[in-house]
Amino acid sequence: MISKGCEQCAKGGKMVLFVYGYCDQRDCFYCPLGENRKNVTDVYANERQVESDEDVIEEAKRMSALGTSITGGEPQEAMAKTTRYLELLKDEFGEDHHTHLYTGITGGRENMRRLSEAGLDEIRFHPPLEMWGDMHGTEWEEILHIAREEGLTPAFEIPGIRAEPEFLEFLDEGAAEFCNINEFEMSDGNYRRMQEEGFELQEDHMSAVEGSKDDAILEEMASHEKVYFCTSVFKDAAQHRNRLKRMAKNIRREFDEVTDDGTLVYGKAFADADRFEALGVPEEFYTVKSDHVEVAWWLLEEMVEDGDLDRGEIVEQYPTVDGTVVERTPVA
């Protein structure tokens, strides 16, 4: 089963809103957060560090967001920011802007009510690993019913560490609406601690953990109609790439080429703007910067080949707010 939030994510239409990186009650050895996100009181909308409410709206518009996924840490102070952003997004984009929250704490009824009133649609709980198999009769069972009573869709989202039938029991009992299992992954933030726990990378894979797709997880859990197994390959090949494509389509200039990976390609020439005007290059094929001119990459190649320009380079970069460059290819 794929939830509405996951459908939007697969289309690259889900903005990721990271609100703080502190977890007061948890210290999971598999936490993937890197140094710039762990134990910080910062907010990020995708790759953009948020300095004002307008940054959140601008980033959502940059990618034509269909919805927002909220994640991060767990301090109570983050609740005020989270509810404000929820209200902001609903006011700007309307009720069709689907929002879901990923959390590692139960929160209680008052927090469920505040989130629901602010516009949250769906809440995905991530119980601590030591509780798996022993959650019935605890606050983790109770919060599923409370969340539903307060108008939220309750669900689970867990890493694929091992098969755990109790999650399926909650689904069959109607307490949880669905369960997402993320392929177990290593990152720069958790690599050392993961190895200390005995986990290793899959051979020829950048992030997936050995055994994270084992038969027990796939057969016991992923075959359930209300369970979805999200692979690391899918996250990169579909979710991330499609999000980049949405951004690139929105911000591309007349002469930018959008690649299949969602990056932008253009030419960079180190010449005076007067040179382009003298050669009769149409204005829509170039733009003047402070110390260079950006131009259609194919036109740059032609101009260098014809001797109209001495040199230049072809630039490939992400359409994100930081414009990270992927590759530079000299043309001479």
TrEMBL record:
Molecular function as annotated in GO = catalytic activity; iron-sulfur cluster binding
**Keyword Coiled coil among UniProt keywords:** yes
Q: Which Pfam families match?
A: DUF8061 (PF26257)
* Keywords tagged on the record: Coiled coil
Which InterPro entries does this chain map to? Answer: DUF8061, MJ0021-like, rSAM, rSAM_sf
Annotated DUF8061 domain ranges read: 262-331
Residue runs in coiled coils: 234-261
Q: This chain belongs to which protein, by name?
A: Radical SAM protein
